[in-house]
């Protein structure tokens, strides 16, 4: 003899409840896993500290020189400066939008995780199933947000209508097809063990990308730190270096110095908002140990 209809309905509802609940739990354990989301937060935080550069494809084009001879020229050597600045502004704006969107998407995913986590805690089968339609829509929307997040974590192509090369260099020829995109370089971070100060000089060392060019240029800012009670004004200077580590001379004994490091500006740099900072105290006497008093990370 078969089960009563009411029992069959209850069994079917329970099966549906378990199936739907497991679907949501799988989503929470995969894409919305807290460790997974933290990984993407870390990635976005690093992106916000990176330097964004303009990339041209191709980098070299054929143009005519003053003698009407065809030559192979670097794009930057024949670029119209005004047009290049316009393209860089587009790149900066796109980068700012990209970083803002990444933050917004991650916040949406965090909120979505909290809402779905509360939903799967519902033990009443009828209540759970009555809210299923709205929550499966939430799952689909969050899945779309997650895919969008992945696509935005890499610098993208630029869609610009500006003609980069001046007609003077083209000699009447058609403007070559040039594609523009962005790429990133990680920021230099001070090595807080290998950076130290002596009586009148300091050695500074920073971490960079694993395959950094030995010709890479760095900009160091040195500033004497004074407090409000001191009458002596602080002084500072900026210098460009190519060595890492490097030695900074002509410092005063027993004083606090703030050092900042950043990548030097280039014609293709479109965005950089962050730099690392460290404060060291020079020795009063040669025999003293140097001390790192603090470090700061500033925008």
TrEMBL record:
Keywords: Coiled coil
InterPro entries, per the entry: DUF5581_C, DUF5581_N, FNDC11
Domain DUF5581: 14-169, 185-289
Sections of the chain in a coiled coil: 92-119
Pfam families per UniProt: DUF5581, DUF5581_N
Protein name per UniProt: Fibronectin type III domain containing 11
Organism: Zosterops lateralis melanops
């Amino acid at each position: 003899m078969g089960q009563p209809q009411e029992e069959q309905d209850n069994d079917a509802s329970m099966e549906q409840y378990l199936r739907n609940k497991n679907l949501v739990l799988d989503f929470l354990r995969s894409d919305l896993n807290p460790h997974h989301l933290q990984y993407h937060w870390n990635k976005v935080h690093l992106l916000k500290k990176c330097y964004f550069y303009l990339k041209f494809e191709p980098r070299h084009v054929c143009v005519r020189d003053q003698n009407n001879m065809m030559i192979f020229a670097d794009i930057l050597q024949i670029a119209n400066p005004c047009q290049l600045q316009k393209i860089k502004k587009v790149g900066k704006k796109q980068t700012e939008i990209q970083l803002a969107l990444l933050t917004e998407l991650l916040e949406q995913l965090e909120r979505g995780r909290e809402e779905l986590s509360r939903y799967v805690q519902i033990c009443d089968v009828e209540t759970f199933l009555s809210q299923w339609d709205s929550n499966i829509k939430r799952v689909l929307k969050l899945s779309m947000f997650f895919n969008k997040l992945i696509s935005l974590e890499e610098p993208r192509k630029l869609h610009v209508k500006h003609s980069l090369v001046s007609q003077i260099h083209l000699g009447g020829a058609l403007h070559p097809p040039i594609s523009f995109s962005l790429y990133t370089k990680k920021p230099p971070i001070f090595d807080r063990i290998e950076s130290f100060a002596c009586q009148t000089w300091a050695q500074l060392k920073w971490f960079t990308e694993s395959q950094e060019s030995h010709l890479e240029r760095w900009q160091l800012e040195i500033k004497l730190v004074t407090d409000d009670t001191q009458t002596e004004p602080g002084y500072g200077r900026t210098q460009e270096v190519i060595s890492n580590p490097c030695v900074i001379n002509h410092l005063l004994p027993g004083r606090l110095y703030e050092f900042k490091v950043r990548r030097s500006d280039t014609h293709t740099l479109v965005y950089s908002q962050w730099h690392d900072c460290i404060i060291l105290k020079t020795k009063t006497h040669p025999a003293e140990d140097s001390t790192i008093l603090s470090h700061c990370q500033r925008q």
